[in-house]
Amino acid sequence: MRNAKLILPFPKPPSLAEFFEMLSVKSQGLAAQLTERVYSDFFLGSLDLKEEYRRYYCVEYADLGDYIEMCHGEYLAEADLSQEHIFRIKHLSQMVDPSYSDNYLDSVLESLKKWKSDRED
Amino acid sequence: MNSQEYLNQIKRYFAHLIVEIKCNNACDHFDINKVAENFFIPILSIVYDCPDLKNQNIIKANFPSVDLGCKSTGMSFQVTSDGSSSKVIYTLEKFREHKLDAVYNALFVLIITEKQKSYTSEALQTEIARQAITFATDVNIIDYTDLMAKIAAGPIAKLKQLCEALAAEFDRWTDYNQFRSDLDGFLDFSNSKIEVEKKTKKYIPSIFVEPTKAKETTRLFGHPVFFSRKIEDKLRKVDYSYINRYLPKMGIGPLQSGIVPLSDTDFPRSLEEVFGHLADRKRLIQQEVKRVNPLGFSPKTSCPEYEVAPEKKAIQSLLKIALEAAASGSENLYDEALRLINTAESKILLITSSAGQGKTNFICDLIENQFGKFEIPSVFIPARELNKYSHPNRILSFVSQNRYLPRRDDIHAVLDLFNQVSKGIQKPFVIAIDGINEVKELESFLSELSDFLNAVCQYEFIKVIITCRTEFFESKFASLLDEPFADAILRIKDLKADMSDESLERMLSSYLTHFNIEVQLSDRAADFLKSDLLMMRIFCDLNEGQNKGVVSDIYKVKLYESYLYRKADSFPQELKPEFLSCLYNIVEHMLSEDRYQNVNVGGYSYPQQQIIDRLVSEDIILRREPAEKTLQTMLDETISFTYDELRDFVIGLYIVNRVAKSDFSKFLEVLGRLRTLPIYEGVFKYVYLLARQADDASILEVCEAAEDFDVHYSIAIATLPHEYQNEDDRNRALEYLDINRKTEVVRRIGIFLFNRGKSEQVLNRRLLIEHINFLDDPDVSKLFFILFRTRARVPSFEKDPIKEFLAAWLDAVKTVEDPDEDYLTFVIQLSFLANPGQQFELRSALAQIKGRGKMSACFSFVENARSDRIAGFARSIVAFVGASQ
Questions:
Q1: How near does any CA of chain B get to the CA of A84, in Å?
Q2: Which residues, listed in sequence order, are joined to residue B433 by a DSSP beta bridge?
Q3: 3-state SS string over B379-416?
Q4: Listing from the earlier edge strand, what are the strands of the sheet with B622-624?
Q5: pTM
Q6: Chain A residues with beta carbon closer than 8 angstroms to that of B264
Q7: Cis ω on the peptide bond leading into residue B778 (within 30° of 0)?
Q8: ipTM of this model?
């Protein structure tokens, strides 16, 4: 899906193996091939807005929140802004594309949320 | 002066130059080396008798090996501050590689500081031996002492000439230094024009909301050194590992990219280096595209290297789609990188958009904030100011009024100066011309602008931003796109198209704050304002400083009338009485010529001309139009209403208030004549609305008897202020909801009623749900299908608007404690058309609402519907009392 808009504040991203594990996917199976794409969309092909701000936008915008609001149209709470990364995901492969009725986006996001909170605990 | 005195003077000049160059180089101000190229042209011309010596970098950017060349004498010079052997070797290598011996028979390396005492490197001797021309280190590597020695033996006239040339160059150079130090003053003065835009409210910083895509484009365009790193980021995302997973399985060797993205530390830091790097990147990317394209979804060519052996054909067919996706993904990234390179390399940014869409706001913010924060030197030229100067030097004259600019007689001299500044600070020098459609003599300005842009394109580091109204550009300036510099133009066609919903929301909020308007807008009213920035401006201008309370609807007819009144009232006393007559004159003109735009307003009275000038300069009510001029019309303005609907309103006003009152038969004749024209629908609507407001029975009778009145009524009713709605409207609305009428009428009336939630208005959602409850099967289904622009539900992959509407309600109701009663009733009525799965969800959600007991009237109302299917579904909802079901 082109021009998807998903903003994911996140601490250190999981490794591919951890990603498989949190989704209960066996690393050599067919599901792994599909899920690897999702991992790539989320953590490799996405734009880290925090890094973008540091490298390009800190001259123009007074703070990170302003930059994200002005350039990406999203207001983020302080807790989200303080995450290590803020991934802006533009491409979503079919498995997590909301324009397909039976997609797994919510399940993947839920798993990531749980994984994140487990680590925070 | 005698010869010796001239020689001493020349020596002083050179000594001063060398000290300056050394100091600047020590401070990393290497721009002085580039300045020296031009500085030495007249000097070397005299010393070496080559009158047509030219800077090759101006003729062709990054001309290899030699900076200066004279085709008539065959002499060439490389001007450098680096006197090392390696620099001389590099120069000679490039001279040989580019076969410059075919053009020049002599090469001199001029060291602008001081040359080495000797050049004995073996590598240098080897390279000299490979040259087709004669090159001797003691003859062809020169510095100022050699120039002095060569000229010393010459006639006194030549010494005098050289001394004068040096004096002139030093004057120019001193100007340059002076200008560098005065740059802040120059830029402050240039950009003080932005303050004028603020005072006249053409630029209101506090309401500016950036169109994010356009702004991103200007970043790369305006500051390539800083932002071109983004191209490396893009290239870093290209990953051949997916492709290489599949290729070996098909018996094809893996791909290895020839591009190694640079880190920020390694990225070039000067404009010259960046542009060189980008040219190199472009070449490499094109090579990579040639490699991945044949593997992708839409190969332009086949590649023999990717031929698959017969025994691998089976696996190839299995992996085909996966490989194509990976290859096309890489190709897309390369395409995006090429687009970014094109943006960075472009010299002219052209922004076209229709009136009132924020071009001036955009360009002023760009200069004041984005360029200001990056200290990118820029000059802001409001194009209407160019009308004060004469052709063909409008732009030069405008720029020259700045006292900080050293005196220059032609545009090249000014551009040369800007270019030098630009090289010095390693940022482009940007000249922004806002609203070229506001220059009065468009034909002559087109040629001037074309010459100016041609000139600009000869200077590596000067860039131009131009804004223009789209229709003017298309009709008057489109030929610029056929000029030799067309490849250097980057165009943004519509600023607002780049605006996200969030941006528009922010803009509306900023407008209301800036104009100090206290208001609670309904979603419908907010959407109305966000749909047209000009309407937003009119609404805010009109209600400045007021507390409007809750505004559920904004009616154009009221908005236009109030705005025209406010505008007339703001005019000087002597012009006020002429205001409406002037607009009526324009309308009369339109009606008599049967031409509803591009009206020539020559011959109007002086006060009316003044009114037109004022309205045109504001660009909200009237706008200037490009027009072919003749001997008779050469001094006349050609105008249109900025907003077609405002024109229709003024025509309606004229017909109802002026024509109908003085001669009703003429009113009938005018309205009848418009019937076949595209403007009829708009004019009819306003005639009807104005007559409703005035309760003019004669006009209403004519309107209601008109052909297709139901269609016109269904359009007009949404814009009739609710205080004018009455029982007749209620009856008419119910009559027009008859499913046997025209579908468009039923749909418009139904949707209008559904969107009017307020029961205090005569026409509202309640009326619609009562009508639905009154209908029997299958008419009620047909009505829903008309309202939702769909048809009887059959299993299909098509979008189902009813399903989507109900799904959206199911989502929304999770977070709403007390849903709107009429809305809830409508959902219960509609639910029988959901598929079984969705019906289950709906029944469950509705059961919980019913269980809360607050909305029981809604359920019992629908249970009594005439349609068995509607009533049946409603009765099947069993109230649930509990936390969740």
A1: 20
A2: B381, B466
A3: EEEEHHHHHHCCCCCHHHHHHHCCCCCCCCCCHHHHHH
A4: B599-600, B638-641, B622-624
A5: 0.66
A6: 55
A7: yes
A8: 0.91
